[in-house]
Write a structure and sequence with these properties.
This protein has 392 residues and is α/β, with parallel strands linked by helices. The protein has helices at 28-43, 64-70, 86-99, 114-119, 145-160, 164-178, 192-196, 261-272, 289-298, 307-310, 329-332, 340-352; strands spanning 10-17, 52-54, 76-78, 105-112, 200-202, 205-206, 216-224, 236-245, 281-284, 370-377, 382-389. Helix 6 crosses helix 9. The radius of gyration is 20 Å and the shape is globular.
């Protein structure tokens, strides 16, 4: 019997965005390919090294169709689809596979023309994810995705006195962070009054409480430690990860003020051997302002019910006490669908010191050392959290 390989350390050595924002002349497949090529170029490694592939959201047999389009024949694949947290969950799976010797290099890639498709009439907005299974008991009542988030936000306001102004602060600071990101879709500043006075989408969410709709894609290349010396840039190490699921029907959600990040975050920090207080920046899924606030609580950056006060006074800004969504997030930078992979790309960019005017620095001027990316899927149905560091 051959000896089993030792668990190997895992690093991210390549990241890239495709064209993002308003992309009217590309297919989702083309955005996948563009992001993949750019990430591979960023890594400096040869494509022949890639033996693992993870993709979701495109094709009848994802990720088989996308791998074929890219000319890849992987021997390890993942198509786990759990909404916006998909990519953190896939990154956790990929890290485990590489550590165990089941793969050497795994490419995670995503692309979507969600905005362009609606503009061109190729698709329409959907009111629900479907009407089969448990969801059949909610769909007839018009309980849309945004309404589910809005209802959860209202519960937090009722339980803890969280205010509309505090929720609006999340959108204001996301936009301020986007101002230093030349690739962000919206960069003009907004105020709390702008957020509060916007058209109502689902009470208490006005338009600016909700993520934008864009086109775009991105890719991340993860490799075993022995390939790091051949990479073009310094690695960002995967230190720990955690995943969790909660519910699909709202009636099965035990507490609207607690997301599954309370579980995935605890696991990720424990496995990484760090505490929330050690983290220099956080990239958090923000389809709605409430998601940022409650995820900060559940990751342990503040106590339950204190998220409203925590997000005040510019704490989430690039130069704030805890920089959050440093590229502008889904509220201002881009949101082409399952945005979780963009969180990993931005975290790596910051840890590498590649964010230009939007670069986060520690109090002594040094680059950040630790980052956390936490994705949320569905309507707080699932969560994946990954802790990344410059020092492996």
């Amino acid at each position: 019997m051959l000896p089993r390989p030792l668990r190997r350390k895992v690093a991210i050595v390549g990241t890239a965005l495709s064209d993002c924002g308003r992309v009217d002349d590309a297919t989702p497949y083309a955005l996948h390919a563009q992001a993949a090529r750019r990430a591979l170029a960023d890594s400096g490694l040869d494509r022949s090294l890639i033996d693992g592939f993870a993709s979701a959201g495109l094709g009848t047999l994802a990720p088989v169709e996308v791998a074929e389009y890219l000319g890849l024949r992987p021997t390890w694949v993942d198509s786990t689809t759990v909404g916006g947290s998909t990519w953190e969950v896939m990154a956790a799976h990929a890290a485990d596979a590489i550590a165990a010797g089941h793969a050497n290099a795994v490419l995670l890639v995503y692309g979507s023309t969600a905005r362009a498709d609606i503009k061109a009439g190729r698709r329409t907005s959907n009111l629900s994810f479907g009407a089969r299974g448990p969801l059949q008991f909610e769909v007839p009542y018009g309980h849309t995705l945004v309404a589910k988030y809005a209802m959860a936000a209202r519960r937090h306001m009722h339980e803890y006195g969280t205010t509309l102004e505090q929720l609006a602060e999340v959108a204001v600071q996301a936009r301020a962070n986007a101002a230093t990101n030349p690739g962000a879709m919206f960069r003009d500043p907004v105020t709390v009054d702008d957020v509060l006075s916007g058209p109502m989408i689902a009470d208490p969410f006005t338009k600016l409480h909700c993520c934008i709709r864009s086109d775009g894609g991105c890719a991340v290349l993860m490799v075993a430690w022995e390939y790091v010396p051949d990479a073009a840039k310094a690695p960002v190490w995967v230190l720990g990860s955690g995943t969790a699921v909660s519910h699909t029907t709202m009636s099965e959600w035990d507490d609207f003020t607690v997301s599954p990040a309370a579980v995935s975050g605890r696991l990720a920090f424990e496995r990484a051997g760090v505490r929330p207080s050690d983290i220099d920046l956080a990239e958090i899924y923000d389809a709605f302002t409430y998601m940022t606030l409650v995820t900060l609580e559940d990751l342990g950056f503040c106590a339950k019910g204190e998220g409203g006060a925590f997000v005040e006074k510019g704490r989430l800004l690039r130069d704030g006490a805890l920089p959050v969504n440093t590229d502008g997030g889904g509220l201002s930078a881009c949101h082409p669908g399952m945005r979780g992979l963009f969180l990993l790309v931005e975290a790596v960019r910051q840890l590498r010191g590649e964010a230009g005017e939007g670069q986060v620095r520690k109090a002594d001027g040094a680059l950040p050392e630790l980052a956390v990316a936490s994705g949320t899927g569905g309507w707080f149905c699932s969560s994946g959290t990954v802790v990344l560091g410059r020092d492996g």
